[in-house]
Amino acid sequence: MLEAVQLTVSRGEQSWVHDFRLAPGGALALTGPSGSGKTTLLEAIGGFLPVTSGDLRLDGHSLLPLPPERRPVSTLFQQHNLFEHISVAANLKLGFRNGRPDAQAWSEVLVACEHLGIADYLERMPGELSGGQRQRVALIRTVLRPQQIVLLDEPFSALDGENRRRAGEWVREMVQASGRYLIFVTHQPEDTERWADQVVDL
């Protein structure tokens, strides 16, 4: 179980208090206008922003004492975080320890690339891709990492209708099958209807 207990985060003069419980395989959607604290909450869960008070617990153990690099969290921010000087394949491998996925893990990456329509671009450089293609590369790298908590900030914003549906269904299936926890930010009501077990409107 992933739990936020009176988890208070602040940015500037604004503060937000969060309470939620998410079961393994579950998905929590964060909605609300710009500036309402959605990305701030993701940053706090990932350990990039200090928490004012309260607690964040995974299976009863607080995550707050852990620095970002030790938290069981995989995050996709809106910038996509691709390295421009290496190929798409090399970017995907960076999601694994020492940049070296084993054969099974790399096979899962290739299956995902085929499913999401980017298998033909593995040897290209990120600068050669469209915004939607870049977003799918970053999405695969984030979701297929082994961390238990997956945080996605507007993960489908650059995708058209069919690619958005396919990517969303793939993410949901991967999280459910592995019993992990998904928290994602979206401005689209259809995303919450399709893929969220819970919705927090900030």
Strand order of the largest sheet: 6-7-8-3-9
* CATH architecture grouping: 3-Layer(aba) Sandwich
Structural class: alpha/beta
User: What is the gyration radius calculated from CA atoms?
Assistant: 17 Å
Number of β-strand runs: 9
The percent of residues in helical segments reads 25-40%
Separate helix tally: 6
Instruction: List low-pLDDT spans.
Output: none
Average pLDDT reading: 93
SSE order = EEEHEEEHHHEHEHE
**Largest sheet properties:** 5 strands, parallel
Strand content: 25-35%
Question: How is this structure best described in words?
Answer:
- With 202 residues, the protein is of the alpha/beta class.
- It has a single domain (22-47, 67-201), classed as Rossmann fold (3-Layer(aba) Sandwich).
- It is 33% helix and 26% strand.
- It has helices at 38-46, 88-93, 103-115, 131-143, 161-178, 189-195, and strands at residues 2-11, 14-22, 27-31, 51-58, 61-62, 73-76, 149-153, 181-185, 198-201.
- The strands form two sheets. It has a five-stranded parallel beta sheet, with helices on both faces. Strands 2-1-4-5 form a four-stranded antiparallel beta sheet, with helices on one face.
- Strand 1 and strand 2 (14-22) form a beta hairpin.
